[in-house]
Amino acid sequence: MSFEKDDAVVLHDKHSEYDGETGTITQVMETMFGDATYTISFEDGQETGVPEDALEAAEGDDE
């Protein structure tokens, strides 16, 4: 599943302080290998370089 800017997502990364939290995608970056990484904004900070497989669409998100 591909995500776009302003999508609401849940982060699943046990090494992140935001694990399990819902945030909003603020930036989508493409790596030199053609994969996307994301910057996610949370209420009290942000996480950068998040791979697509660490994200899940938030409940209530239409996509």
Top keywords for this entry?
mainly beta; globular; 63 residues; 5 strands; five-stranded antiparallel beta sheet; 0% helix; 48% strand
Question: Can you tell me about this structure?
Answer:
With 63 residues, the chain is an all-beta fold. The chain has no helices and 5 strands. Strands 4-3-2-1-5 form a 5-stranded antiparallel beta sheet, with no helix packed on it. β3 (36-42) and β4 (45-51) form a beta hairpin. The radius of gyration is 11 Å and the shape is globular. The model has no long low-confidence stretch (mean pLDDT 93).
Q: How is this structure best summarized?
A:
With 63 residues, the chain is an all-beta fold. Helix content is 0%, strand content 48%. It contains no helices and five strands.
